[in-house]
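2024-03-11 09:14:02 DEBUG pipeline.ingest accepted 1 chain
2024-03-11 09:14:02 DEBUG pipeline.ingest length=86
2024-03-11 09:14:03 DEBUG pipeline.predict start
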Amino acid sequence: MKNLSNEKYDFKTGTYDYMGNKISSLGATVVLKRPSAHTHINFDDISDAIHTIKDHVSKYDTKVELDKMQDEYLNSEFGAWGYSGT
């Protein structure tokens, strides 16, 4: 199995730390990507990693829309830091 990378996720065979240093040749590492965040997960079982990627990809468009709405709110007058509401 080879490593895969695209705008939605990274998949690497073996386990890696969050800085990209290889820890072990066993298992798999997945980085789930979305506009507001990335989530790094190490798996002992490659099939669990693939299941997680499938779930993430099936929900990706919804997560992107939620990120856009959050970004719009936080950049609005009402979502700005220090807004008192009065």
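2024-03-11 09:14:41 DEBUG pipeline.report The two ends are 58 Å apart (CA to CA).
2024-03-11 09:14:41 DEBUG pipeline.predict end
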